[in-house]
Amino acid sequence: MNIFRFLGDLSHLASIFILLHKIQTTRSCRGISFRTQALYVVVFIARYLDLFFRYVSLYNSAMKLFFIASSCYILYLMKIRYRPTHDPSIDTFRVEYLLAPCLILALIFNYKFNFAEVLWSFSIWLEAVAILPQLFMLQRTGEAENITTHYLAALGAYRALYIPNWIYRYFTEGLVDPIAVTAGIVQTGLYLDFFYVYFTKVLQGQKFELPA
Amino acid sequence: RHPSSTHDEL
Fold it and tell me: How does this protein sit in the membrane (chain A) (predicted)?
């Protein structure tokens, strides 16, 4: 564990708490893509199934359980508790176009051709692109509540912070994880436009609005 | 080192 990975994980945790806070205080999931949230459930379950056969640390297991539980809880909030506040007509990104290529990538790029490793690789690729329905929705509406943008910023910062972690691990442990690094760079790249608007507008006290 | 057996990241 190094500081970059730890801060990345904290940022990931923070993003979930910000999202829960947004849903609970506004009693609404307006502006949040159900499809993106459902993809995260798939990502976490696919990757963290190793809870049953691999022990890394208490920290690692606790975080995995938290991410599985919180992502399922968010789906419950969106689909049942605050269902009327979710507008499916603007959440239309076709997730098949993400799932199928990720499955193919996982079958080609994996560290061992067995069920657990292919599933792991699939979850890594899927996580990289799972934010697309959310970004697509943002693009369509052209604006977002501040709290939603803080959620996205914390979520984007999480994988961005993993990049210095991988550089650090390369020099200190000689560890290279080409699949995670490639997907992580793609994932961070998808946020660049968002980060630009977030830093130049939201953090300057303006509303998050995309140019028409 | 090869990462295949570790997967110690979240």
Answer: Multi-pass membrane protein
Complete DSSP assignment for A131-174: THHHHHHHHHH-EE-HHHHHHHHHHHHHHHHHHHHHHHHHHHH-
- Give this complex's ipTM: 0.86
Nearest to A127 by CA among A73, A47, A31: A47
Nearest neighbour of A64 by CB, restricted to B4, B6, B10: B10
Q: Pick from A9, A60, A117: which is nearest to B8 by CB?
A: A60
Taking residue A69's Cβ as centre, other Cβ atoms within 10 Å add up to: 11
Give the CA distances from residue A142 to residues A46, A82, A97, A145, in Å, rounded to whole numbers and listed in that order.
Answer: 32, 23, 23, 11
Query: pLDDT, tens digit, for every residue of B1-10?
Result: 555 557 999 9
Q: What is the pLDDT of residues A63-78, one digit of tens each?
A: 999 999 999 999 999 9
Question: Could you tell me which chain B residue has the CA closest to the CA of A58?
Answer: B8
Residues 6+ apart with CB under 8 A from A151: A15, A18, A19, A22
C-alpha to C-alpha distance for A73 and A70, rounded to whole angstroms:
5
